[in-house]
Amino acid sequence: MNHSERLSVMTANNNMENYEETYRSFDWKEVEKEFSWYKTGKVNAAYEAIDRHAESDRRDKIALYYSDPERQEQYTFAEMKEKSDRFGNVLRRLGVKKGDRFFVFLPRTPELYFSVLGAIKIGAIVGPLFEAFMEAAVHDRMENSEAVAVITTPALLERIPVKELPALKHIILVGAKSDLNEGHYDFDLEMERASSKLDIEWVDREDGMLLHYTSGSTGKPKGVLHVHNAMLHHYQTGKWVLDLQEDDIYWCTADPGWVTGTSYGIFAPWLNGATIVIRGGRFSPDDWYQTLERYGVTVWYSAPTAFRMLMGAGEELANQYDLSKLRHVLSVGEPLNPEVVRWGLKVYGLRIHDTWWMTETGGILISNYPSMEIKPGSMGRPFPGIEAAIVDDEGNELPPYRMGNLAIRTPWPSMMRSIWKNKPTYEEYFRIHEWYVSGDTAYRDEDGYFWFQGRLDDVINTSGERVGPFEVESKLVEHPAIAEAGVIGKPDPVRGEIVKAFVSLREGYKPSEELKEEIRRFVKEGLAAHAAPREIEFKEKLPKTRSGKIMRRVLKAWELDLPTGDLSTMEG
Length: 572
Ligand code: WTA
Hints:
Layout: H1 19-25, H2 28-32, H3 37-40, H4 45-54, E1 62-67, E2 72-76, H5 77-94, E3 101-105, H6 110-121, E4 125-128, H7 135-145, E5 149-152, H8 154-157, E6 170-173, E7 184-186, H9 187-193, E8 208-214, E9 222-227, H10 231-240, E10 249-252, H11 259-271, E11 275-278, H12 285-295, E12 299-302, H13 304-313, H14 315-319, E13 328-331, H15 338-347, E14 352-356, E15 366-367, E16 381-382, E17 388-391, E18 404-409, E19 418-419, H16 423-428, E20 435-444, E21 450-455, E22 460-462, E23 465-467, H17 469-476, E24 482-492, E25 496-505, H18 513-526, E26 535-538, H19 552-560
The chain binds 5'-O-[(S)-ethoxy(hydroxy)phosphoryl]adenosine.
C-alpha cells in the first residue's frame, strides 16, 4: 500500500467542516436534541423518519422516487406517512403487537418501505429478507425468530415453508390474484380498509426495531437486533458522512434485506429529510447510469464490486450519461481498491469515499469525510464519538502499522443489543473488556487512518455480501451425490471473493461438468443465488481434524498454493 498518496478535499458544501475539531468536541447528547422525543420523551424511529417531516414544511417534498418497467411513482412525506399509518393499522387489526417479529419478503418496491415503516410504527420488530433467498435461508431466519406475520408476493410465498413455521399466523400478499387461503390477506384490500390515521406506539429507546440475520463461520445465521436508539447514529452519520443537504437526491444501491439498505437506505436519509431513489432488479451498468441521470442523483452510496463492474464497462459508457448532478460518492462492504478510487476521480471527477462498518455495528464507524484528505486504500478515520483501535487479544493497543484486531470502544448508539436467542455468540464480540471485537484485522497509520487487512474467521465476502461457509456446506451435503463439503472464499478481481466448494462424492457418483452444474443449481434454488459456489472441485477426501471437522484453513492453503501450516490436529 502507498501510504503517502493523498486526494485533497474537493467538495464545497459539507456539514462537517473540520474533522479534527469535531472529533475533539463531539458529544452524542447533542444529537438527542434534534429529535422531538427530547421534549416529549416519546420515541419511535419511524415517526422521526417520516411523520415529523409530514407535519412540517417538508410535507409535500418528495420522499421517494420509484420506477420499474410497469410503474413510475413518487411519494411525498405526507403520502409516506399515510401509507405507513395504514399499514400499521393493517398489522394491528391482525393482532400484531409490540415486540412481535414481522418479516418483509418483497422485491424492492414502495410496498417494502410502507410495510417496514408501518410495522416499526406499531413497535413490531422487522426482519427484512433479501428477495433472492430461497427456502432454506427463509426457513432458518423465520424459525429462529418465531415470526408471527410476513408480507410477501405470491411468487415469493412458494419459498416460505409455512408448515414448518408454527408461529407464523398471517400472510399479507402484494399482488394477490387468486382466492385467498385462510390466514392470507390481500395487501391492497387491507390497506383500503384500514384507517389512514394511526395511533403510533411510543416505545422505549432500547426497544427492538430491526432484526438483521448475518453469517458467521459456524452455525446458522445470527439474528442481530437493533433498537430505536440507533436513529441517533443513523441521523448523524447521514449528516456528516453522506453529507445530506436539503436538496439532495440520494441513492443507496443496497437492498433492505442487508443492513446497508435499512440503516442507509431508509433511516439515515429520511431522518435527515432527504429524497431517496429506489431501484430494484439486477445490476446493469446502463441501467445504473440511467438511474443516476434520470433522477439527477447527487449523493450515491454503493459497493466496490459495483464500481469495479462499472470500471469494466468502460469510461466511454459513463460519458454517454449526464452525471453532472452527482457530487458525493461513497462505498461500503468490502475493500475498495486504490485503482477504483483513482478511476472514479478520472471518470466521474469525484473521490469515492470508503466507509467501514458491519451488520453488528448498525452504522458507519470509520470513514472518509468530504472535508478530509483521502488516502486511497484506507477506510478513513473514526466517526466523532467513536473510539477505534487496533488491539491484541488481551486488549492492549498496538502502535501504528502493527496489524491486529480492529476494535471499537463500547458502547455507541447503533450497536447491536443482542443476537436473537444466542447469548454466547453475542458475548464473544465483547470478550475483551470495554471493547467490541469486529473480527476484522487492520492497522492504523501515524495519521490515524485505518487500513483493512482481512477477516479472522472464515466468512466469505462476495460482492460485498456476507456468506457463511457453514450454511453453504449444510446445503451441499443435502445433495444425494455429496458425501462431504468444505467451502472457502477464493480471491476474485471483480467480486472480491467468490464461493468455492470442495466436495467428495458418495459411492456410485462420478465427477463431471454436468454434476457441477447440477450442484450449483441445487444451492442456488435451495439457499440463495449469491451463495451458490461459482467454482466446485471434486476431491477423493477432504482434510479433517480427528474430531471430524473439515479444515477450511487447509483448503484455502491448497487453493492459494500456500504452506498448510500446523497439521497436527489432522486425521491420519
Ligand atoms: C467487510 C456491511 C473492507 C468487513 C455494512 C466487515 C469492509 C464486513 C468494509 C461486514 C470496508 C465492510 N473495507 N471491508 N470499507 N466495509 N467490510 O455485515 O469484513 O454485511 O466485517 O456489513 O464487511 O459486512 P456486513
